[in-house]
Amino acid sequence: MARVVGLGGAFLTADDPAALAAWYARWLRFDVQPEGGARFEASAVPAGGYAVFSLFPRDPAYFTPSRSPFMVNLMVDDLRGALAQVVEGGGTVVGDPEDWPYGRFGWFLDPEGNKVELWEPRVPDEG
Asked: Of all helices (H) and strands (E), which one includes residue 18?
């Protein structure tokens, strides 16, 4: 039987896809390609990083204040710096960053009101 072997992408709708892609390219350094998407090579994932597919109840408080029925999680190399860039670009930080055993998390609303989770993976101990 066939099985899923990885996360192939995240696809969002936007009122102005080109403008929102340009915003992500400028403020979070996405390498946006001519077709409007950004590709992330598996070799670029930091140690301790991985993709997660998770299901939430239909009306999850975790996604508020966004009204979108989804939330994207993006890995970053510097959570504090990424959140500062988002604010400089007109995004809105939601809540305070949190530390967990597997990394640090922070959230923001993009210019179209989508809630995005940023994750700075904790580098596993080498030893």
From this structure: helix 17-28
Question: For every residue of 50-102, which 3-state class applies, written as one string?
Answer: CCCCCCCCCCCHHHCCCCCCCCEEEECCCHHHHHHHHHHCCCEEEEEEEEECC
For residue 52, the Cα-to-chain-centroid distance in whole angstroms is 12
At 63, phi and psi to the nearest 5? -90, -10
Residue-wise pLDDT for 1-53, tens only, equals 877 777 778 888 899 999 999 999 999 998 888 887 888 888 888 888 888 88
What letter would DSSP give residue 36?
Answer: S
User: For the whole model, what pTM was predicted?
Assistant: 0.86
Alpha carbons 100 and 28: distance in angstroms, whole number: 22
